[in-house]
Amino acid sequence: MEDFVIKTENLSKVYGRLFWKKKEPSLKGLNLEIPYGTVFGFLGPNGAGKTTTIRLLMGLIKPTTGQAWVLGKPADDVKVKLRIGYLPDGPTFSPYLKAYEFLNICAKLLQIPSSQRRKRIEEVLETVKMSEHANSKLGGFSRGMTQRIGIAQAILNKPDVLILDEPLVGLDPHGRQELKDIVAEQRKAGTNVFFCSHILSDVERICDSVGILFKGDLLRCGKLDELLGATGMRITVNVGNDELTQKLLPQANSSVRLADGGWELIFNNNDEVKAMVDDYVAKKPDSMMITPSRESLEDYFFRNIAVAEQQS
What is the chain's pLDDT, residue by residue, as a tens digit (312 residues)? Predict the structure, then answer.
């Protein structure tokens, strides 16, 4: 288990409803291995079992079958909690506490020495851009401000693993960018990150690996570079190659006119286009730049979910 920051074996959770109704599995035999040094995105539609998985990893609920380990220890090991930072989905805090007071309580629970608490609290407030609200009561905070305080408490103990459930909810575009910067900083500091989000474009920028969950089953899991393999080519046609542009434009899947007057064209794998481009490049090597293009995470996600829905 030491080789993986998070590992699960046949992890299942069945929630019992009323005794005369059939029990509903929220998670079905999840097998997951996340190596150290990873920013892992856990994706899926509402009700797929993502939050259930996080609660199992945090030891907040017991599995019906299987096991889970975090940082090489069983998920219900109390001592390992001191090495985890956790932000639940839709966090709520006492409205009567000031931001500093709340974080001070968290610091005590995390056993941060009293000589270090003030400095560390000031550091995390600065990180989430909430220093000026340190003495404001949480009850007066907007959803985005509450989310920032939730992130502050999650990184307060300089965790070895940071588990975030929908951390981008409630944040404006500027706040989302700041969170992405925080995740990047945490990674540089050696923190492993596991988080759920519905904002797939941000997940694609932040993560190096993802897993897709659907109705409790893990559909896909792996490194983004492997999952989103090259599906075509991106051609940047330089200014002054109008003849080539006119030939390529009708066959392009998408096209963008660049500020300098050139064109960016994207194609699926197409032997006819490739032959035309190779022939033109042989005559005019500086006429264009060719790079592989890959499927977006959003397209990959919805394509796999659509297939799963048809098969279910």
Answer: 568 999 999 999 998 765 555 677 889 999 999 999 999 999 999 989 999 999 999 999 999 999 999 999 999 999 999 999 999 988 889 999 999 999 999 999 999 999 999 999 999 999 999 999 999 999 999 988 999 999 999 999 999 999 999 988 878 888 888 888 888 888 888 899 999 988 898 898 899 999 999 999 999 999 998 888 767 788 888 887 888 888 888 888 778 888 888 888 888 777 787 788 788 878 887 887 877 777 789 988 998 999 889 887
Question: Distance between CA atoms of 121 and 126, rounded to whole angstroms?
Answer: 9
Helix axes of 143-154 and 173-188: crossing angle, nearest 10 degrees = 0
List the domain boundaries for the chain.
Answer: 4-225, 230-294
- Our measurement of the distance from residue 145's CA atom to the centroid of its chain's CA atoms, rounded to an integer in Å, reads 20
Q: Which residues sit opposite 165 in a β-bridge?
A: 196
Q: d(Cα 108, Cα 222) in Å, to the nearest integer?
A: 38
For domain 230-294, which architecture applies? 2-Layer Sandwich (3.30)
The residues near 10 (Cβ < 8 Å, ≥ 6 apart) are 29, 30, 31, 65, 66, 67
Longest dimension (CA), the chain: 76
- Tell me, what amino acid is at 7? K
DSSP structure class, residue 198: S
Helical pair 99-109 and 143-154, crossing angle rounded to 10 deg: 30
As its CATH architecture, domain 4-225 has 3-Layer(aba) Sandwich (3.40)
Q: Are the C-beta atoms of residues 236 and 263 closer than 8 Å to each other? A: yes
**H/E stretch holding 303:** helix 297-311
> What sign has the CA pseudo-torsion 73, 74, 75, 81?
negative
pTM: 0.81
Q: Tell me whether the CATH fold assigned to 4-225 matches the one assigned to 230-294.
A: no
